[in-house]
Specification:
Layout: E1 2-6, H1 20-25, E2 37-41, H2 42-48, H3 53-56, H4 62-67, H5 74-77, H6 86-113
Antiparallel strand pairs: 1-2
């Protein structure tokens, strides 16, 4: 069984003054972007739960990280810098994931064309 998983969990964003429930209900919230979501097994989802990506990606294989178009290395990509606000941090992470997905789509289309 697959679960729709938020890569950057909503519980980490509650520092922004909203509850996880409020964020989940706000379909326009940056963390509800398709760029912050991926399908994973229900077993993996129950293990990961609300851990921050920097904490749970050490348990995710490199192949899985690439397969889900996750920007790596995690220690650099998913850790908020002192200069970043919460929103700018999420925008940076999701922008990087967009470019990983875009590259993967272009590669796949090229393979299909060849």
């Amino acid at each position: 069984i697959l679960n729709d998983h938020h890569i950057c969990p909503l519980s980490n964003a509650t520092k922004m003054g909203q509850s996880s429930k409020e964020i989940r209900e706000n379909k326009k919230h940056i963390l509800n972007s398709p760029l912050n979501r991926t399908y994973i097994s229900s077993v993996s989802n129950s293990v990961i739960r609300d851990k921050a990506p920097s904490n749970y990606f050490e348990y995710v294989s490199e192949v899985s990280q690439h397969g889900h178009c996750i920007p790596t290395p995690i220690s650099e990509k998913y850790v908020k810098t002192k200069e970043e606000s919460e929103i700018s941090h999420y925008k940076r992470v999701l922008t990087e994931r967009f470019y990983h997905i875009q590259r993967k789509v272009i590669e796949e289309l090229d393979n299909l064309y060849s």
